[in-house]
Amino acid sequence: MSQDPFQEREAEKYANPIPSREFILEHLTKREKPASRDELAIELNIEGEEQIEALRRRLRAMERDGQLVFTRRQCYAL
Q1: To the nearest whole number, what is the mean pLDDT of the chain?
Q2: How many whole angstroms separate alpha carbon 78 and alpha carbon 38?
Q3: Alpha carbon distance, N-terminus to C-terminus of the chain
Q4: Which CATH number does the domain housing residue 11 bear?
Q5: Position 27 in a domain
Q6: Is pTM beyond 0.70 here?
Q7: Taking Cα atoms as reference points, which of 13, 25, 16, 19 lies closest to residue 1?
Q8: Which of 8, 19, 41, 67 is a Cys-bridge partner for 23, taking CB atoms 3.0 to 4.6 Å apart?
Q9: Is residue 25 within 8 Å of residue 66, measured between CB atoms?
């Protein structure tokens, strides 16, 4: 997460910060193909139950807000 330009903002808001929405969107754009939650966790260096749960919630919120689409193959896409 050290490359996330919004890391400080996330650290102020959350006790156990994960990558920002913007960083996740940027990562998926560069990746150029959908990714599962597990793939994103590995690629974004997210470890531990709390952080993985936080990632799950963030991805669901991004899906709810129309930033991501959850595919039939259980992956997140732009």
Answers
A1: 90
A2: 17
A3: 20
A4: 1.10.10
A5: yes
A6: yes
A7: 19
A8: 19
A9: no
